[in-house]
Structures are given as structure tokens and as C-alpha cells.
Amino acid sequence: MSELEELQKKVRKLNSRAGNAKMELHDLAEDLPVNWTEIRAVAERTYAVFAELEAAKAELAALEGV
Questions:
Q1: How far is CA 34 from CA 27, 29, 38, in A?
Q2: How far apart are CA 5 and CA 36, in angstroms?
Q3: CA 19 to CA 53: how far, in whole Å?
Q4: Has residue 66 got a pLDDT over 70?
């Protein structure tokens, strides 16, 4: 598998993880004040996956020459 294909696969996986993290954060917000102590942990996980996704997208764009 080429480097481009591997990076495209990574971006797809990260997109899926980011979507799941977004939904987890959304569900937590809807249920507040229940489980309010989980806000920081869920938000940090969501932030981390979106940061990783953004970096991978930038890397992919550079590799594709966009």
C-alpha cells in the first residue's frame, strides 16, 4: 500500500473516531447535570482526536500537492 493510500485510510479512521467523539460529547451535554464530572475527560478526548484529524488532513493535502 502506498503512503498516500495509508494516509487516506488513516484520515477515514480518524473521521470515524472524531464523529464518535463528537456524539459522545453531545450525549453528555444533553444529559447534564448527570455525569457532569466526565465533561473534562470527554472534551479532552474529543479535542485530541480532532487535533489528530486536522494534522492528518494537512499531511494528506501536502502529500497530494493541494
A1: 11, 9, 9
A2: 40
A3: 11
A4: no
56 membership: H or E segment, kind and range: helix 39-64
CA–CA separation, 12 and 18 (whole Å): 10
For 29-44, write each residue's pLDDT tens digit. Answer: 999 999 999 999 999 9
What are the structural domains of the chain?
A: 3-64 (1.10.287.660)
The alpha carbon of residue 55 and the mean position of all alpha carbons in its chain are separated, in whole angstroms, by 10
- Residues 6 or more apart whose CB falls under 8 angstroms from that of 39 comprise 28
pTM, 2 dp: 0.89
